[in-house]
Amino acid sequence: MNDIYTTALNTQKATNQWIDYIAENMTNVYTPGYRENKINFNTFLTGVVLDNNVKNQGQGKSIPGTSDENLFFEGKGFFVLRTAEGEVNYTRLGEFTFDSEGVYRARNGSAVQGYILNDKGEIMSGTKAISADLYEETALKGGAMSIPTTNIKLWIDPNNGKFLGKYDEYEIKNDGTIYGKADGGNRSVPLYKIATANFHNPNGLFDKGSGIFEETTESGKPVVGRGEIRSGLLEQANTDFKANIANYQQAKVQLEIVNALIKANKQLLQSAMELATQ
Fold first, then answer.
1. pLDDT tens, position by position, 105-142
2. Would you call 216 helix, strand, or coil by DSSP?
3. Which pTM was predicted?
4. CA end-to-end distance (rounded Å), the chain
5. Mean pLDDT calculated for residue range 23-28
6. pLDDT higher than 80, residue 5
7. How many C-alpha atoms does 194 have within 13 Å on its Cβ side?
8. Which DSSP symbol is given to 94?
9. What confidence score (pLDDT) does residue 1 get?
10. How would you class 143 by CB atoms within 10 Å of its CB: exposed for 0-12, middle for 13-18, buried for 19 or more?
């Protein structure tokens, strides 16, 4: 025979956790890059429990950024970041800016990763140019060859005020290529390609908070990200506000029913104990 009281307590605990996740979703509905919590449930003889909490990795809408340095990734994948300690992380939040030394950084200080390009726009691995086909077979796609990423740096020469000493301005194209521009825009040279990565199981990534994720054995190794990069935009939270309102109403009713059941069981237990002492 099932213990109704235990079942109700377990369901109460799971419902409270559900409400906490819904509250987090609704609180962050306007937080750029926020990934919505998606809750699954399992039902056991001892009550309903949360199975797991995964992040909705669906596409959020674009919103204007604060500068052309901000990026919006329209597609499947993540921007690649490297911490000061050399740890590689991943994010959808392209709230990037160039610091005083010209290093392209995320809001948390990690360096945005990219590949150095030659004048033809080919990725350079040391002194060797890598073709687009060979790039597809790198470690980012599970191949044996690994092309290391690098910090993107556009330092400004204090002598002439130009980027890298010779470019009047820069431009970030939709394919993620950063161009240096000179001679009034008549000369455009590819400098870096912004690195993007995706995963066979992005829900297996470890959520470090603030829109930062880390590779795990469950996520698998990174593969090449697919999509377009748009300068001057950010990705809005992908929270479905209406769905979360509906979920909250359902959770609220569920909690009221469970609380009433727990209260009734306590009253029955108290009555039984009073009868036993008579």
1. 999 999 999 999 999 999 988 778 887 777 776 666 55
2. coil
3. 0.80
4. 28
5. 91
6. no
7. 37
8. B
9. 41
10. middle
H helices present in 164-222, as ranges: none
pLDDT, tens digit (0-9, with 9 covering 90-100), for 251-268: 999 889 888 888 887 777
What CA–CA distance (Å, rounded) separates 136 from 26?
39
Asked if 136 contacts 224 with a C-beta cutoff of 8 angstroms, the reply is: yes
| Cα dihedral 157/163/169/173 (nearest 10) | -170
Q: 243 — phi, psi (to 5°)?
A: -65, -35
State the amino acid at position 10 in one-letter form: N
- Contact by Cβ (8 Å): 37, 21: yes
At position 26, the amino acid (one-letter code) is M
- Number of helical (H) and strand (E) elements in the chain, helices listed first: 3, 21
Domain ranges of the chain: 4-56+240-277, 62-235
Q: Is 60 left (phi over 0), alpha (psi -120 to 50) or beta?
A: beta
Residue 163 has pLDDT above 90, yes or no: yes
CA gap 91, 142 in Å, rounded: 20
Task: State yes or no: pLDDT of 211 exceeds 50.
Answer: yes
- The position carrying tokens 């919103």 is 63
Distance from C-alpha of 62 to C-alpha of 232, rounded to nearest angstrom: 10
**Whole-angstrom distance, CA of residue 253 vs CA of residue 247:** 10
Q: Tokens in use for 60?
A: 């959020």
Q: Hunting for tokens 């890059």 — which residue is that? A: 33
For the segment 167-176, the average pLDDT, to the nearest whole number, is 95
